[in-house]
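[job 4417] fold queue: 2 targets
>>> target A
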Amino acid sequence: MSTKDLTGEIGFLARELKTPVIAETFTDLGDRARAEGWSHEEYLAAVLGRQVASRTANGTRLRISAAHLPAVKTVEDFVFDHIPAASRDLIAHLATCTFIPKRENVVLLGPPGTGKTHLAIALGIKAAEAAHPVLFDSATGWINRLAAAHASGALERELRRLKRYRALIIDEVGYLPFDTTAAALFFQLIASRYETGTVIVTSNLPFSRWGETLGDDVVAAATIDRLVHHAHVIGLDGDSYRTRGHRRQPTK
């Protein structure tokens, strides 16, 4: 078979296998392989590597899009100036995402503007890059989702559906108080994830004040107990990013 015929045949086979990157790159890589004296195995590894890398990147993009993150924030972009060294080491460890297969939780506590949401999003992106499905929403958003499911008689089905996500991000617990129904729904969400899936939670309140948000100290204690049993709790302190940025601006 001529080179031209082989090229057409390989292109056809790549399309049949639904490997478009192989179809796009095998000719150029073949020219490079001949010029540089690659072995057959080296050439095959290069072609397959390009296809796998493209598929991995596409998968990551799809998971990040499906996570409904409000912004793109990375661990690398986070400013650690106000974070104790031990917490920095822990965050670096969490960025490896080994906590997700272990079904461990992450709780980020601190005043507004200290980077809790940034870190939660950044860990969500790391999780997506590690092929873990992730879903983000504010605490209020989660309650609204569960309340709608409860009203339609589909709460249990919705909680089961959420188990397809290896990590749920619950942002801004404590900014708005929950009524009795909302507190019960929040407890059910946390309880449904207990030892079955990861949650990443941010809150502006210490645990000692969660009774204020959940409206009941007993419900708060039960929720916290399930949340922190297998959890990494990180306290963030210091001035708000926004406050520090305002102070750095020149006065007029």
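>>> target B
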Amino acid sequence: MRPVDMQVIIPKTLEVAKEHQNLQESGKVVQTMLGVQFQKQQEIEKRKVNSPTKSEKIEVTSEKERRKDEKNKKREKPFKKSSNHIDVKI
């Protein structure tokens, strides 16, 4: 390299080094901000009451209670006569 080229390159090197350092620091700042934001979100999630899922709402009932409920449901249904069925007595 020629001495004239070195006179131009050295100041440019300092500028590039400063820019590179700024980029690295901004990345660290963004990463830190995201970490803090994530921690705040985790705290909010810890304090929030979640509604139970469908599987958590299932109640365990005894066999007798289930049969009783089925009988009650059958009684509530109105009886409909079928037009496709003929009842014959001899």
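[job 4417] complete. Note on B: The chain has three helices and no strands.
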